[in-house]
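Comment thread on ticket #2218

A.B. wrote:
> Attaching the input chain for the structure job we discussed in standup.
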Amino acid sequence: MATLRILGACSGTEPMPKLHHTSIVLTAGDRNYFFDAGENCSHTAHIAGIELLKTRAIFLSHSHYDHVGGLMGLFWVLNKLNKQYKIPLADGEIKLFLPEPAVWEHILGALHYTEGGFNHSFEIPVAKPTLGTFFEDENVKVTAFESHHLPLAEDGSIRSFSYLMEVGDKRIVFSGDVKSMEDLIPAVDTGCDLLICETGHHTVAAVCEFAQTHHVGKLIFTHHGREILENRPTVACAIDACTIPVEIAFDGMTLNLEELK
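C.D. wrote:
> Ran it. Output below, let me know if you need it in another format.
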């Protein structure tokens, strides 16, 4: 059974009750795959019973704080669990994919000042995502699509991505942050069982309209902006008018992928 758990469903607002910044973990075939690592994601995952030492890869959409702010804590917890319980990481390494590897260099530098100097026994290979399918194992295939949420780097490299996860016959798109809904057309137009879409930069009505006309089976709102946080009556009207199933994500929400139609 493959599941998706929402570890954080909020955008980069000031702290909100019962909500943390964006993070999702896919569990498939006895391995975990993180998509973004907002604040507190390691705490939420561990308390929920997710076996963090079975994490295989972490995929970051872009380098804004509300998407990477929990990365330092996640690796600190992984190292703590590894040493405390004498349990090795399942694969001996965790692959880290992020558009701007310099971010990891700074986080790693900070970790060296924590207890033990972050002396860890596992490998952390770091790479940039590349357009197209760039990761595949026996459990999941991950394809990257360009998002225009951030401008290109000085060297012309992409700084923001959306991701398509293929788990068995299920296709799940995680939007990351997008400049416009049109950024998601290449990811969803070949068929999408589930779109997990940010609403921090777009209205709920606009996301619903896009999903209804672009082969999306089910829609889940995450990375909540002011509309969902503060104007639920307007949101309820947009959801009621939507012709496909819609849910608003909350921290701790779990989805069984086998139940997707």
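A.B. wrote:
> Thanks. Noting for the ticket: Helices lie at 41-47, 65-68, 71-84, 102-111, 185-188, 204-212, 226-230, 232-241.
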